[in-house]
Amino acid sequence: MKPFLLLATRVDDYAADAEYRSFLSFGGLAEGQLRRVRLEAGPLPELDLADYSGIFLGGSPFNSSDPEESKGAVQVRVEGELARLLDTVVAEDFPFFGACYGVGTLGRHQGAVIDGTYAEPIGAIDITLTDAGLADPLLTGLPSSFSAYVGHKEACAALPSSAVLLASSATCPVQMFRVRENVYATQFHPELDVEALVGRIRTYRHAGYFPPEEAEDYIERARASAVDHPAAILGAFVRRYARH
């Protein structure tokens, strides 16, 4: 099988490695089947999409809607590289799945409004599939409503006409969308189980997602939640697009 590619931007090694393991596990992939490029560590190498089955984009400490003058050199480079890659991905309708940061990058690329209006604290929320979502092959077999983990400072406030809304929630209207037939983004994190979420809470307790003194309360609520369905989306993506 041609490998999948994970594009990562997490500076913290623990968080970056945990994210990689999560995509491996829920994608049903062996290590040789998922190559990783840590964009925060260096420039994106030249890619031949024909060498890959598909691309995953993981979460990020970057916010695409931050004022341009506040962005550091690494963020500016990463955003430029991802925008150029998405030019090709969208034009070729190449299999792409962006989790959380995917909404900001793909949404911005397509002309969506990305801002802090629908930011959500870390935790489990209820996701509802649209009619298009119920019909989408990546979501086949999922219930029309299910719980998923979120935690983000920006979100999509308005989708462009090029995007199809697949899932929503009461606190964030755009939880998943598709561009063309094979390019996807979720606001929620299908790669997280409860232990991975707890690890994120501990890693990012001083990153502004929640008051740091409340970290243990967030962990307690996370452990009390039941999130069982979103990981299946990653497995469906791999099964649908694996190429030999």
Q: Can you give a write-up of this model?
A:
The protein is α/β, with parallel strands linked by helices. Helix content is 33%, strand content 23%. The chain has 7 helices and 11 strands.
Structural class: alpha/beta
> How far is the first residue's CA from the last residue's CA?
4 Å
In round numbers, the mean pLDDT is 96
Strands in their spatial order, largest beta sheet: 2-1-3-4-11-10-9-6-7
Strand content: 15-25%
Number of distinct beta strands? 11
Main sheet properties: 9 strands, mixed
Q: Tell me roughly what share of residues is in helical segments.
A: 25-40%
Radius of gyration: 17 Å
Low-pLDDT regions: none
Which overall shape is indicated by the principal axes computed on the Cα atoms?
A: globular
Give me the strand/helix succession: EHEEHEHEEHEEEEEHHH
**Count of alpha/pi helices:** 7
At a glance:
This protein is α/β, with parallel strands linked by helices and 244 residues long. The chain is built from 7 helices and 11 strands.
Which properties best describe this structure?
globular; nine-stranded mixed beta sheet; 244 residues; 7 helices; two-stranded antiparallel sheet; 33% helix; alpha/beta; 23% strand
Structural topology:
Layout: E1 4-8, H1 13-27, E2 34-38, E3 54-57, H2 73-92, E4 96-99, H3 101-110, E5 113-115, E6 120-129, H4 131-135, E7 145-152, E8 155-158, E9 163-168, E10 176-179, E11 183-186, H5 194-203, H6 215-224, H7 231-241
Parallel strand pairs: 1-2, 1-3, 3-4, 4-11
Antiparallel strand pairs: 5-8, 6-7, 6-9, 9-10, 10-11
Helix pairs in contact: 1-5, 5-6
